[in-house]
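in:
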């Protein structure tokens, strides 16, 4: 089974075209600005993985943050469509260790990159060990998305030891073998900013029930609203606060709902 991690602009467009069974994994929910060619208006608030299952049916889904890649099981190939190097390094380290081919993708609004890494090399062989905050791209240009979907589908069938750029350039990947020390990375902080005016909070498990003002979206998701902000609460204690960059206020809201 192929594992597709990240159902943002690239992953969501790719999902429908992948052959065979696919495990789709995403930590986010559908927001107003995700409505478009893939996600529908009536899916706002639903986890993207569940929304994708509803659209395509044939996939297995996993809602959550990939900080421990063993949740992916034993896929034949992993396609990484996440938007940050923190998660990419976790997913890639898992693939190197298990000798699973790893398909990398990344984009800014006007440029896209992708490559298939066979298990002999890792992300650190190609990129410096960046551990910075996610680079938020905004909308990716349609021609870049088309390039990435076409190229990634080609690389699913056959790798070619090249890093492809949407501008038409390509670069040879190192031949390996990998001599990087793939150390487990520092645990991400319990509260941090993600792309798209979103704050993620990781609390511990708690009594998962709807409180005043909450709306049960699915068996694992409750959503709260406050003006233009929304708080999505998952059964495992994780929360996403949308429409805010104020960490302290987000934390306060989270605590009020969960204690
Ligand atoms: Zn390496």
């Amino acid at each position: 089974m192929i594992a597709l991690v990240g159902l943002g602009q690239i992953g969501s467009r790719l999902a429908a075209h992948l052959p065979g069974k696919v495990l789709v994994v995403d930590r986010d929910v559908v927001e107003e600005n995700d409505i478009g060619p893939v996600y529908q208006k009536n899916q706002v608030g639903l986890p993207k993985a569940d929304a994708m299952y509803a659209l395509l049916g044939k996939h297995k889904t996993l809602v959550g943050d990939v900080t421990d890649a063993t949740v992916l099981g034993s896929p034949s190939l992993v396609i990484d469509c996440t938007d940050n190097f923190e998660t990419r390094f976790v997913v890639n380290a898992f693939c190197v260790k298990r000798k699973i081919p790893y398909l990398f993708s990344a984009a800014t609004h006007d440029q896209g990159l992708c490559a298939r890494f066979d298990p002999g090399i890792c992300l650190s062989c190609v990129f410096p060990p960046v551990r910075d905050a996610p680079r938020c791209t905004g909308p990716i240009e349609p021609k870049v998305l088309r390039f990435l979907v076409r190229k990634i589908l080609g690389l699913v069938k056959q790798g070619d030891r090249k890093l492809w750029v949407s501008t038409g350039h390509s670069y040879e990947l190192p031949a390996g073998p990998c001599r990087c020390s793939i150390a487990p990375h520092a645990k991400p902080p319990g509260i941090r900013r993600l792309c798209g005016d979103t704050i993620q909070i990781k609390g511990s498990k708690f009594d998962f029930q709807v409180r005043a003002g909450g709306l049960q979206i699915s068996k694992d998701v409750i959503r709260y609203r406050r003006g233009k902000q929304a708080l999505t609460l998952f059964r495992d204690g994780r929360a996403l606060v949308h429409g805010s960059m104020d960490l302290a206020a987000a934390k306060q809201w989270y605590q009020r709902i969960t204690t």
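note: The chain has a mean pLDDT of 89.
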